[in-house]
Amino acid sequence: MHQDLAEVLLDEETIAERVDQLAKQLAARLDDVATREEPIVMLPVLTGSLVFTADLIRRLPHKLRLDVVTVSSYPGTATSSTGAAIHSPLPEDLDGRHVVVVDDIFDTGRTMELLDGELRAAGASGVTSVVLLAKPARHEVELRPDLVGFEIPDAFVVGYGLDYDGLYRNLPCIGTLRPELIR
Ligand code: 5GP
Ligand code: MG
What we know:
Rossmann fold; 10 strands
């Protein structure tokens, strides 16, 4: 798998150190919310944020509920955003709950904008967004994530949960693919 990478942007150790810091920052934000409204609802956006979420939630001391949501913006092999659509029911019983949306990457921002609006409309008392990666050059919405792990250049990346055509999610690092492998 590694041999399919053109460049490693973030190695395993760099990611782990940053996830530690993000968990501390998120925990500090949630301290305030958690005393008032327990439990917090963690909402990873499938499938890309699975690996990040697994590492993140085990570093949080709060009582939390774990739900999932499926949003697609990159069907099949496309590498440019075609917009976002929610493909699963939102968690029930969001009324008065604080929701933490976890995503792998904030690209155009359409996924997060859509979820933020829908969750608030469903009664969430607040929404905190945490993303491992952001590509500032591609943002198309005014909303910005509350916590960002790394800002990266406008390149298509795989690994640590991120796929290309369903593959590479289990790479422990994040990198770009060799161009000849992208259809
Ligand atoms: P947005 O709605 O912010 O444009 O897109 C967010 C989603 O697009 C992410 O959750 C992710 O699934 C996908 N995405 C955006 N950029 C990349 C990338 O460089 N690599 C991969 N694998 N997925 C990406
Ligand atoms: Mg996604």
